[in-house]
Write a structure and sequence with these properties.
This protein is of the alpha+beta class. It has five helices and nine strands, in the order βββααβαβαββββα. β8 and β9 form a beta hairpin.
Length: 157
């Protein structure tokens, strides 16, 4: 699990989004950012999570948040995921795992008795100064927006 905690400075990252445009943490300076790490595009739980964030996107924007999803998938897979589910937020390509490793969300996992290394579904809320104000390690995919806002003492509009 992640070594980062609330009050830590968010690790910088630089990468490319689904359109192969550069994206870095610095792009969000002065803004509140929901940075959500998820294992893989178009898998059942990841799709539910992304669609919950999509369905509540305006509420998140109304509360002043920007969103950025991160997975090791390629730009092409991200484009397909965005188009298929009409996602209104960008997805960071992190196939080299630089952001994933910086945020400490890669490690041993176990599913159906099989052990392997993979990405831990984790969400970080970063404030306007680049400080982590919330780390969510037990993501509730079906109600992720509500979970984020409740943990921050806000309500879904």
């Amino acid at each position: 699990m992640t070594h980062l905690k609330e009050g830590d400075k968010a690790p910088d990252f630089t990468g490319f989004n689904e359109n192969e445009e550069p994206v870095s943490l610095a792009d969000f300076k002065g803004k509140k950012l929901i940075l959500f790490f998820y294992p893989k595009d178009n898998t059942p739980t990841c799709t539910v999570e992304a669609c919950n964030l999509r369905d509540n996107y305006q509420s998140l924007k109304d509360n002043g948040f920007e969103l950025l999803g991160v997975s090791p998938d390629s730009a092409k897979k991200h484009q397909n995921f965005i188009n298929k589910h009409d996602l209104p937020f960008p997805l960071l390509v992190d196939s080299d795992r630089k952001a994933i490793d910086a945020y400490g969300v890669w490690g041993p996992k176990k599913t159906f008795g099989k052990e392997y290394d993979g990405l831990y579904r984790t969400t970080f809320v970063v404030d306007e100064k680049g400080v982590i104000v919330k780390v969510i390690t037990k993501v509730q995919s079906k109600r992720h927006t509500e979970q984020i806002l409740e943990e921050l003492g806000m309500v879904v509009s």
